[in-house]
Amino acid sequence: MAQLELRDVHTAYGQSQVLFGVSFSVEPGECVALIGRNGVGKTTTIRSIAGLVAPRRGAIEWLGENITGRPSHRVAKLGIGYVPEERRIFPELTVWENLDIARRETPGGWDEERVFELFPDLRPIQTRLGGVLSGGQQQMLTIARSLMGNPRLLLLDEPSEGLAPRVVESLREQVRSLKDEGLSIVLAEQNLSFVLSLSDRCHIMEKGEIRHSGSTGELRDHPEILEQYLTV
Amino acid sequence: MESLVRFAREELGNPGLATLLDQPSFAFIQVLNSVSQGMNLFIIASGLSLIFGVLRVINFAHGAFYMFGAYILYSVAESYELGFWTGVVAAAAGLAAMSIVIERGLFRFIYDKEHLMQLLLTFAVVLILTDLAKMIWGTDQYSVSYPDGFGGAVDLGLTRYPTYRLLLIVVGPVILVGLMLFTARTRWGRLTRAATQDREMLGALGVNVPMIYTGVFILGSALAGIGGALAAPFNSPTPGMDATIIVDCFVIVIVGGLGSIVGSFIGALIYGFVFNFGSVIVPNWQDVFPFLILLVVLLWRPWGLFGRPEGEGA
Q1: Contact call for B204 and A149, based on CB within 8 A
Q2: Beta-carbon neighbour count of residue B24 at 10 Å?
Q3: Can you give the pLDDT of all 232 residues of chain A as single tens digits?
Q4: What domains can be seen in chain A, in order of their start residue?
Q5: Does the distance separating the beta carbons of A149 and B198 come in below 8 Å?
Q6: Cβ of B83 under 8 Å from any chain A Cβ?
C-alpha cells in the first residue's frame, strides 16, 4: 500500500478550477517530484494534500485512511509536514519561537538540537526575529520548523526559488540527508538539476493535469521529454 | 505660584484650576483618581484589545460582559454573602463560561466576514445580553460594599486616599505584567502571537487555531468580568452601565492602538487623566475630552499610539 495516494483530485478556488484529476502515489521513503511551469497546479496539489484547500472531487489517502477535506492541523498531526513556497516564517517571532510553536514531541524525534545539527546556520541566530532573516535562512527555518512536528512526509514547495546557487547546493544536501533518514518527500520544483538529483519519480504537470510520469532516470536519459513540456 | 493662582481665579475665572495650582493635596488626589479610574478601564479594555488583536473581531458585547461581571459579583457577594473575592472569581468564571458558548455558537462563523457583519452580530449579542440581565436582575440599582479591609482610607502623607482605589492602582499594572509575560514567555502566548501573524500557516503546522481563538476569547471576556466585578463597589450594577463602558473602552483601545496591550494601558491612563483633570478645569465638559483625544490621535496616528498601520507586519 502506498503511503500517500491521490486519486482523481479536482481542486478549485471559487469559480476557477485549477486541478483536473490529479492522481499519483508516494511510497514510504520515496521522493516524488512535481515539475512544470508556473501556474500548472503544483502548489495547488500540495495545498490540497496539506488540507489548506479542499478538493471538489477525488480522494487523498494517507496510510490507507481517507483524509480528503480534513482541516490542515489534523492532516499535520497525522505526519504530513507542509513547507510553503513563500516560506511564511512568523516575522515577529524569533527563530527559536518559530521552531517551538511547531513542536510535537515524539520519542527519538526532532528537537532543536537535531534541527541545528542539520542546519548549523540557524543555531547562532536563534534569538533573531523571523522577519529579518535572509532568504536562505528563511528556507532552512521553514523546513526546520516542519521537522519539529516530526512528519513522515514533507511537502516541499519550490524550496530552491530565489536562493543563491551556493545556498541551493547546501539545501540539496540537507534535503538528501532527510531522504536518507527515510522521510518521504513530495517536491514541487522548477530547478531541474535540483529535481533530478533528489527525486525517484517525476510527474510533469500541465494545465492542472499530470501529462507525463516516469522515473527520474528515464528523464535524465531522455531530456527531450522535459523539453517537450517545459519549454515555452 | 501665587500670582498664577490669582491669575487662574481672577483673570480666567477658573476656580478649579486655581485650586489645582494652590493645593498640592487636591492635585495629588486628582492624579490618584486618574490612575485608579484608568486602571479599572485598562482591565476591561485590555480584554477587548486582546480579542481584536487575535480574532480581528470588534466585540461590541464586551461592555455587556463587563455589566454581567458586576451583576455576578453583586449576586455572589451580596445576595449569597459568599464574600467579595469569591464574587470576583465567580465573575471571571461566569464570563469565561458565557464566552465559550458565544464564541463556539456565534462568533466562530463570522471570522471571515466583513467588519460590518461582525458588528451587527456582536450588537445582536448586546441586545440579547442586556435583556437577559434585566430578566435576571431587574432594573434596580444595587449597592455593593467594599471588600473587608478595603473600606477605609490610607494616609499617604499629603492626603488620605481610599484603600480600595489604591488596590486598583496596584491590580492594573499586575494584570499588564501578567499579560505581557503570558504573550512573551509562555507557549500559549507564542501560539497566540503566531495566530495573529499567519493563521493558516499555524494550522498547517498542526496547531488547532480555532482552539486558540476560543482560549483568547475566554481570557479577554474574563478580563471584562473581572473589570466589572472590581468596579461594582463604586459603579453600582445597573442597566445601561454596559453602554457607557464600551464607549470608553473603544476610545482607549483606538488611542492605544487596537491589539496592543501596552497601548491599552497607556490609553487608559490618558483617558483617566484627561477625564479627571478635565472635570476639574472645565466642569461639565469632561465627557467631551476623551473624544477630543480620540480625534487628535485619529488625525495624527490613525492606527493609534502603539498600533501599526494596516497591512504592515501583523
Answers
A1: no
A2: 11
A3: 799 999 999 999 999 999 999 999 999 999 999 999 989 999 999 999 999 999 999 999 999 999 999 999 999 999 999 999 999 999 999 999 999 999 998 888 999 999 999 999 999 999 999 999 999 999 999 999 999 999 999 999 999 998 999 999 999 999 999 999 999 999 999 999 999 999 999 999 999 999 999 999 999 999 888 888 887 5
A4: 27-53+73-230 (3.40.50.300)
A5: no
A6: no
**CA dihedral angle for residue A6, residue B201, residue B98, residue B272, rounded to 10 degrees:** -170
End-to-end CA distance of chain A: 37
Q: Distance from A52 to chain B by nearest Cα, in Å?
A: 7
Contacts within 8 Å (CB) and 24+ apart, B17-20: B17/B280, B17/B281, B19/B280, B20/B277, B20/B280, B20/B281
B31-58 confidence digits (pLDDT tens): 999 999 999 999 999 999 999 999 989 9
Count Cβ atoms within 10 A of the Cβ of residue A1 and give its class: 0-12 exposed, 13-18 middle, 19 or more buried. exposed
Cβ burial of A7 (10 Å; 0-12, 13-18, 19+) is: middle
Q: What would the pLDDT profile of B80-134 be if each residue is shown by its tens digit?
A: 999 999 999 999 999 999 999 999 999 999 998 888 999 999 999 999 999 999 9
Beta pairing, strands A31-35 & A201-206: parallel
B194 touches chain A (CB under 8 A): yes
Residue B108 sits at the chain A interface (C-beta within 8 Å): no
B204 touching A (Cβ < 8 Å):
yes
Average pLDDT, rounded, for chain A: 94
Alpha helix (H) residue ranges in B138-260? 163-185, 187-197, 199-204, 209-231, 241-256
Any A CB within 8 A of B209 CB: yes
Which pLDDT value is given to residue B283? 84
This complex has an ipTM of 0.93
Beta carbons of B207 and A131 less than 8 Å apart? no
Residue B313 confidence (pLDDT):
42
A199: burial class by Cβ within 10 Å (0-12, 13-18, 19+)? buried
Q: Is the CB of B191 less than 8 angstroms away from the CB of A101?
A: yes
pTM, two decimal places: 0.90
Contacts of B148 (CB under 8 A, 6+ apart): B84
A101/B202 touch (CB, cutoff 8 Å), yes or no: yes
Q: Cβ–Cβ of A93/B193 closer than 8 Å? A: yes
Spelled out in words, what is the top-level CATH class assigned to the domain B2-7+14-300? mainly alpha
The phi, psi pair for B248, rounded to 5°, reads: -55, -45
Mind giving me the DSSP string for A165-188? HHHHHHHHHHHHHHHHTT-EEEEE
Q: Please report which helix (H) or strand (E) contains residue A77, including its range.
A: helix A72-77
Q: Quick one: DSSP state of residue A103?
A: -
User: Which residues in chain A have Cβ-Cβ distances shorter than 8 Å to B209?
Assistant: 73
Residue type, B89: V
Is B201:B105 a contact under the CB 8 Å cutoff?
A: no
User: 3-class DSSP state for residue B1?
Assistant: coil
Model pLDDT for residues A151-187, shown as the tens digit of each residue: 999 999 999 998 999 999 999 999 999 999 999 999 9
